[in-house]
Amino acid sequence: MELVRFGVSMEKELLEKFDQLLKKEGFPNRSLAIRSLVRDFLAEKYWEKQEGETTGVITLVYNHEVRGFTDLFLSLQHQFLPLIISTTHVHCDFHHCLEVILVKGETTAIFNFYRQLQSLKGVKTCKISLVSEENS
Ligand code: NI
After folding, report:
1. Helix (H, G, I), strand (E, B) or coil at 58
2. pTM value?
3. How far is the CA of 135 from the centre of ligand 1 (A)?
């Protein structure tokens, strides 16, 4: 496989945070981490355009103390009720919670749900992982 080098510009502070995280996560270099990010991004964009049904998992970490968060979060889950198979809630520390939501249904509807979860104020991370047709 041919490797191509290219330059990237970003804010110094952002790069420092990135480097700190790479060190913490044990990534040997920036190239490997950026390749991983690009693959995730491409996979997510690929899935967003797919038609038909799929199964997967949405994982969120959020601060439950943000005003109004719990009400909005629960309303959203009830709004997308037919998609949700089950949810698991873990209290991580005094402020943060982890929620794992198993979903099954129309890919476009799952992404609509995912995008709305991502945009909730208080969400720290929100990731989606879907099962491809070949693996299901
Ligand atoms: Ni909790």
Report:
1. strand
2. 0.73
3. 32
